[in-house]
Amino acid sequence: MKKMKEKIMIGVAVVGVAASASISVLAWGLSSTGNQVSAAAAWPKVSSNMAVDGEKAQQEETIVNDQSLTKQNIFNKMLNSVDYYQSVYGSFEVSNAAFGDQTVSYQAGLEDKVSYQKIEGTGIDQEQYYQNNEQIKYDNKARTYRVSAVAEFVEEPQLRSGARITENEDGTKNYFYRGDVTHTGFASSMSLLPQEMAFGFLEDFSLWEITGTETYLGREAVRIEGLTEEAYGDKLSVESFVFLVDRATGILLRYDGYDQDGALTDSMHTTQIAIDQGLSINLNARSNKYAGYTELVRGQ
Question: Which class does domain 71-296 fall in?
Fold first, then answer.
């Protein structure tokens, strides 16, 4: 019997238990109205009979600036992607049975501590801004908004270089998450700081392989093909998967998940991305854009 996973969120002032049920959990995200580069070319599926070798994931210290294509280095880079860029903007599309199709766009300046994101899809049109420890979320369908104070957090040094998975005497596991310094939420968990994706799909090194590199939207990407751990894959209806991970930063650029019949059941495709090329967030334009919206207060 496989051991249950207990995940502890550290650095974001959240403590949670149990594994994620779906990678496309609805959150505050974003969608750009600008031009998008199409990246929806079909990929070959991963066979459930794919031969894999390697050892069970062992947590080691992050090897800073090491560009070698080892499983440990790619795993570590996905867990610590925010250490490898200062600003990013772009968009991606997600699709699964639970939420249908959604378009997410984002801008995040880590050094300036500003961000914007938007999600659009069937029945949803939401935007989020972050600046000066304040987050404002707008629901464009309901024409409402909510203002929240965001406390500064101090990250423990071991989250960058220490073990990110530990095991208790009873066999349960602790998964240590870094705080979302992009302040984007959904965009962070799916792509910009893909810790959940790394923990969920890549913890067992024997179930996946690095199969090469390729160019994706102008970025050098590491291609990973693998099988899911049974309990985790059952939650997603995913048996095999393909990742494209940005080699320089660890950002997840593309994900395709297939069920036991080889049908695509879950996906995230980046359609546009620019790293360390500045931002175009206009925080001063909000007064006109959201005129007439009703503020929601705590308890509403």
Answer: mainly beta
